[in-house]
Design goal:
Layout lengths: L1 H32 L2 H8 L3 H7 L3 H19 L1 H5 L3 H18 L1 H12 L6 H24 L8 H17 L1 H7 L7 H18 L12
Helix pairs in contact: 1-2, 1-4, 1-7, 2-3, 4-7, 6-9, 6-11, 7-9
Pfam family, one: TetR_C_3
InterPro entries: Homeodomain-like_sf, HTH-type_TetR-like_transc_reg, HTH_TetR, Tet_transcr_reg_TetR-rel_C_sf, Tscrpt_reg_YcdC_C
Protein name: HTH-type transcriptional regulator RutR
């Protein structure tokens, strides 16, 4: 049993190593410019190892894309587990900001794919993304109907949250340039997170206790 567990852990570590390298290569070169050899070079593993875990470049690419989306899905659990919009939307914003901090390359891969018309993952968008979005729209609309937040178009609210939070990943270089050429430190990230959350919640007429503010 220890040997079997050890082999499984080793496999998972190798897979993680490959995915991190692929994320970086796809973010910088795009799907068309990336090669399995380049990914192997960045990962420090033989090309044969890459093909052992992922038979084609498209398989690897789709895994990278699905990984970042799965992480975003986990961030959205606040919608389903919260008692109201401040906790649900506020928690979602916090989680999305943290993902932009910790997974900027994955976000850049997703952004590049979508900006090019999603040639590889269009089926994923039409299936998983559409279903997820419609479900969150229903939750937001319920909060509006219950008088817990100002009336707004839930779809455009989601678009706004995505664009603001993912900006910190997709335009990382621009933000660092405007930050004196330095990456955001812990205090910078906390300030960014609290400001983005406060601005959006205030615009929705809710405060951090989930109560409607006086408009």
């Amino acid at each position: 049993m220890p040997t079997r567990n050890g082999s499984k852990n080793k496999r998972l570590e190798k897979e993680k190593q490959i995915l991190l390298a692929a994320e970086k290569v796809f973010a910088e070169a795009g799907f068309g410019g990336a090669t399995m050899q380049l990914i192997a070079d960045v990962s420090g593993l033989p090309k044969a190892n890459i093909h052992y875990y992922f038979s084609t470049k498209e398989d690897l690419y789709r895994r990278v894309v699905s990984n970042i989306f799965d992480i975003w899905l986990q961030a959205a659990e606040s919608f389903d587990e919260s008692s109201g919009p401040a906790e649900g939307i506020g928690g979602y914003i916090d989680a999305k900001m943290e993902i932009s901090r910790r997974h900027p390359m994955g976000s850049k891969v997703w952004a590049s794919e979508v900006m090019h018309g999603a040639p590889v993952i269009q089926d994923y968008l039409e299936d998983v993304l559409v279903s997820w979005t419609e479900g969150r729209i229903d939750v937001i609309q319920r909060w509006i109907d219950d008088g817990l937040m100002e009336p707004t178009n839930p779809r455009h609210l989601l678009y706004m949250i995505w664009s603001v939070t993912q900006h910190y990943a997709d335009f990382q270089h621009q933000i660092e340039t405007l930050n004196g050429g330095q990456p955001l430190d812990d205090a910078d990230w906390q300030d960014a997170k609290s400001n983005v959350r406060a601005i959006i919640l205030r615009g929705l007429g809710i405060d951090d206790t989930g109560n409607e503010t006086d408009a």
